[in-house]
Structure to design on (350 residues):
């Protein structure tokens, strides 16, 4: 079960073009493309005629023509061609989804379009677009439930074990983090003074001494984990050798056991250094590949043994626990609203 009245990242903006892109998002099959003018379009990947996937069709101008019997739909879902029929019944239309293109990502609203709320977009993703920042983004597929990915990012003590060749150092496991609730967000702050710099930090910023490392995580329900990262030589916060970046994580559920993991890593130092960008991309890709392998192995276990059957909890489990409660509350709100709507409909019919 997935929250529907929220935004999910559906694609990197660069992924969408004049070729049909089929993607399952929170259990819903979706087909996406751009109009000739470049506007992004998303439709349910299911032809209303005989339910063939529309992604097997083709684009004719701005319309999507089903590959089975040639019925065509305009970007707003209206049927514009019904071969062999003169009259097109007005109800013959394909379901479309609101999209919002921002900060290099395409966001989709799968729920009730009347409830669309742009203030629910995680604003921290704006650093991908902000002057003075160098953007970087990509996407990986992970065969694990998206909440396992949220857990992973909200407990970064794992960096000290899984990512010692890139972003891990021992301080990240040994320094207790402070978890707080701030409205609809969970925040986790970890300050690590005078610690050994992780290998990737040395390569990126050229540290030759210990560093003061700062890590602030912010979780926004249901699937966003935003990480602010700063590192400077110990005791010298204004030293020109410093590392400032954000790790923007959008964990879009695909199915109950798979996730499309979109990430951004805007940085605020050596912005024009393309060799650094390439090196960082390789380092981050390696890091997330390490996560992917662990998460997929964990997923294979949790389908046999539910995660909440465990009896051991650590302090670092606090934030993932809060995040899961927030998702459960969102799901319960949507279930209540759906039950009320059904009740109202049956009262009206009676
Ligand atoms: S199933 Fe699409 S036109 Fe028939
Ligand atoms: Fe990780």
């Amino acid at each position: 079960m997935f929250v529907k009245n929220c935004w999910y990242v559906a694609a990197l903006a660069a992924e969408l073009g004049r070729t049909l892109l089929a993607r399952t998002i929170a259990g819903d099959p979706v087909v996406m493309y751009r109009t000739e003018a470049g506007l992004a379009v998303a439709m349910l990947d299911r032809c209303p005629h005989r339910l063939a996937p529309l992604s097997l069709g083709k684009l004719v101008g701005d319309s999507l023509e089903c590959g089975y019997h040639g019925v065509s739909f305009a970007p707003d879902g209206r049927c514009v061609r019904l071969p062999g029929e003169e009259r097109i019944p007005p109800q013959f239309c394909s379901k479309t989804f609101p999209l919002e293109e921002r900060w290099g990502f395409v966001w989709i609203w799968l729920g009730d379009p009347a409830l669309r709320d742009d203030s629910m977009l995680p604003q921290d993703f704006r650093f991908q677009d902000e002057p003075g920042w160098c953007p970087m983004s990509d996407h990986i597929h992970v065969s694990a439930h998206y909440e396992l990915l949220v857990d992973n990012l909200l407990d970064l003590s794992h960096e000290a074990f899984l990512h010692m060749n890139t972003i891990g150092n021992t301080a990240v496991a040994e320094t207790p983090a402070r978890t707080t609730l701030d409205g609809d967000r969970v925040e986790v702050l970890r300050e690590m003074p005078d610690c050994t710099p992780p290998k990737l930090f040395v390569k990126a910023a050229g540290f030759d001494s210990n560093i003061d490392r700062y890590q602030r995580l912010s979780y926004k329900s249901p699937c966003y984990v935003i990480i602010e990262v700063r590192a400077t030589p110990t005791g010298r916060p204004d030293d020109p050798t410093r590392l400032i970046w954000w790790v923007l994580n959008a964990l879009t559920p695909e199915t109950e056991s798979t996730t499309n993991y979109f990430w951004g890593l805007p940085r605020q130092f050596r912005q024009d250094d393309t060799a650094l960008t390439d090196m960082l991309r390789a380092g981050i890709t390696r890091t997330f590949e390490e996560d992917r392998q662990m998460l997929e192995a964990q997923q294979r276990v949790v389908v046999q043994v539910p995660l909440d059957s465990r009896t051991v909890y650590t302090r670092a489990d606090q934030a993932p626990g809060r995040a899961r409660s927030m998702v459960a509350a969102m799901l319960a709100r949507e279930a209540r609203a759906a039950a009320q709507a059904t009740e109202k409909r049956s009262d009206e019919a009676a």
Q: What stands out?
A: The chain has two domains: 7-118, 122-307. Residues 47, 49-50, 52, 66, 68-69, 71 surround FE2/S2 (inorganic) cluster (ligand 1) (CB under 6 Å).
